[in-house]
Write a structure and sequence with these properties.
Oligo-1,6-glucosidase, domain 2, alpha/beta, Immunoglobulin-like, eight-stranded parallel β-sheet, binds alpha-D-glucopyranose
Length: 557
Amino acid sequence: MSNKWWGQVAYQIYPKSFCDSNGDGIGDLQGIISKLDYLKDLGVKLVWLSPIFKSPFVDQGYDIADYQAIDPTFGTMEDFDELLAKAKERGISIILDLVINHCSSEHEWFKKACADLNSEEAKYFYIREGKNGCPPDNLRSYFGGSVWEKLPGHENEDLWYLHYFCKEQPDLNWYYEPLRQKLYEMINFWLEKGVAGFRIDAIMNIAKDLTFPGLPADAPDGMCSAAKMTAKLSDEAATFLHEMNNATFKKHGAISVAEAFGVNPESLSNYIGKDGFFSTIFDFSARELNEKYPACYRYRPVSIAKWRDTIFASQERVNDIGFMCPIIENHDEPRGVSYYLPRHAQNADGAKAFGAVNVLLRGMPFIYQGQEIGMTNTRFDSIYEFDDVAAKDNYKVALEAGLSERQALDILNIESRDNARTPVLWSDEKNAGFSSAQITWLKVHQDYKNLNVRAQQNDPDSTLAFYQKLIALKNNEPYHDILTDGKFVALEPQAEYVVPFARELNGKQIQVIANFEDSAIVHKVTPNAQVVLSSKSVEIKDNQIIIPAVCAVVIAL
Ligand code: GLC
């Protein structure tokens, strides 16, 4: 169809945790270069790097101090150029993370703004007077507390700046045209360098109501989540998004994958339709079931049945509009196998079956590092083992609400963003082969002795081997076309924890039946059915397939 990417599988690298080449306990660009053959063998064609730019890392690089410099923790611009070139040699394109709703308070723009309120840079931010000694409105930031903070250097005045995320992440004023031009120049700098495009961070937040009216409180703290304001304004950013596309991505034929929470279904075609602002957006519909704030500790588990119903609805919605990117986890979410699957399926069998769903749904799937070996949540034994600013805030909020330390910790072990941010498990050696350092920046997953890439590379029945087969199925004929352009069709689930769907093109059908029940199910097929791939051995007999517990089958009809 429209875009060469829709037939591909993408992979997300969280650089701090991918591979450490210099023994400082933190992953880096040379570490990524050393694993390019691994990615090639996996079959992925597009790699998204979470931020690698100069940063104080208050929010792990999502607080950028210089958009055109590589943070020394990760290496140099030469390392980056080498990565681009060596990836290209292997048929892999790189996309970067575009964090343009906010920058870091260490960015020179913000420093200049604080130093001189009449400067050009002061217009790049939202700096306002308070109301009756209080912040201009009552919105709560995503990481807790007010979205307003006293402007550094002006603490004795009634002057505040806006930050939807940490106070170290001041929001950029998209309503100031010269700032937008600066951002577009920066985007073009990277595109001219040869990156294939961008994953675009938190983009819905750029829309602001410049009267800063606030919203009715949604919790006893008298505040209201900034997310509610974003949802209210979701279409307001449209003109900027259109402008950005024309000034950057479109000119370069680049791919843009937006992190866009809360897009109204009616406006979806503006986002990912033929002339949409973006090439595609992630499908976060399952994640959106858990509106975490203000009470993350009141989260409700999302079963695979609920996941199925939500994702299926979203797949049906976009069939005729465009493409979304299916995911089961990323650096902001716990591991999908631990979060969505029933207990008996939180293992390699579950990881394989879930992988079949992820890779074969319609759209360009993103695999998050470690997912392909079936990594589960890491177990944290104390709050001091966490690094994430959101995890620390959630812990505090939970304690304030009266939960015990144990209860708060148990919740973080289920929900926290650090669950999926721990190092990739490469081998059964020290630090799982991730780093030669004494201490790694985040702890290493407890099961690394058994659960690691090297062990799986030697095992044809491993999760890794199964992911390779799934990706090969999508990459190659005879099924490439149907798995790319084929319409998504929901099938009737045989039992609660079954995820059954089909892809259809020109009268042909591929069915994917993932059984997460703890017992076998019977799936009826027509006489021409052929099992193309399955995660456990199955047989077709009398037009029926018995699909064992926790197993996925791919059938061609
Ligand atoms: C996005 C990122 C997340 C970050 C936030 C603020 O949601 O994925 O990791 O904390 O934006 O930049």
